[in-house]
Amino acid sequence: MMQRLTILLALAGLAAAGPAMAADDGATIYKRCAACHLANGAGVPGAFPPLKTDVRALAGTPAGRRYLALVVIRGVSGPITVEGKAYRGMMPAQAGLNDAQVAAVLNHVVRGGSAKAFTPREIAGYRAGSAALNSAAVGRLQPAAAGK
Length: 148
Hints:
The protein is mainly alpha-helical.
């Protein structure tokens, strides 16, 4: 009986740890983004911007990194321009994500690019300095992507 209880408690511990570990996995978190931006990040022309060339370029600059983090933390409403096309929609803030999760999903999106990895500490700094911003203010912060 005691051995069964020990096994059950161990399995319960593994089950409880599983979602917490997966929560910081960028690919897992990205599934919520894929509803609009699609699983491959191609977006939907005219409705939801792609998360490819411009996003990777922005991740390579300080202003771009701040902007990308704020888009996730505070949301964005436009007009914004992505890969030469205007978007006037709205992306809600992903308020349920902590700093590690925001860093993980951004790293997933920019994978394959040359930018350094986002860190939870970096995201915490952007979050702390953005309390007064709403999605429209974030949209106005959009820097031009490198190479444009």
